[in-house]
Specification:
There is one protein chain. The protein is α+β, with helices and mostly antiparallel strands and 92 residues long. It has one domain. It has two helices and five strands, in the order H-E-E-E-H-E-E. It has a three-stranded antiparallel β-sheet. A two-stranded antiparallel ribbon has the order 4-5. The longest helix is centred in the first third of the chain and has 11 residues.
């Protein structure tokens, strides 16, 4: 997954990016949608992705997670290639 794909997922979910770990060389980032966790390691290399995160996403990172209704009998997942996977949950 690229930074562009990761931030597109966060934006589409209107979810706050969570900084799980930060060290001298990278950020370990995640986004939760109530059912799935999307993770990404962003290098602190002063490149355009790093600058985009620091400027546009870090100030709003680590906001409290919102409760989401997941009683939908269909689960969805966005695959790394951008395709959407729909899964029927049995018994519902």
């Amino acid at each position: 997954m690229t930074w562009l794909e990761f931030k597109a997922i966060a934006d589409s979910l209107s979810a706050s990016i969570q900084i799980e770990n930060e060290n001298d060389s990278s950020y370990d980032l995640s986004v939760y949608n109530g059912q799935h966790v999307f993770k990404y390691i962003l290098l602190k290399d002063n490149g355009s992705d790093h600058t985009d995160f620091e400027t546009n996403y870090k100030p709003n990172a680590n906001k409290a997670l919102e409760a989401r209704n997941i009683n939908n009998p269909f689960a969805t997942n966005i695959l790394p290639n951008g395709k959407v996977l729909y899964i029927k949950v049995h018994g519902q």
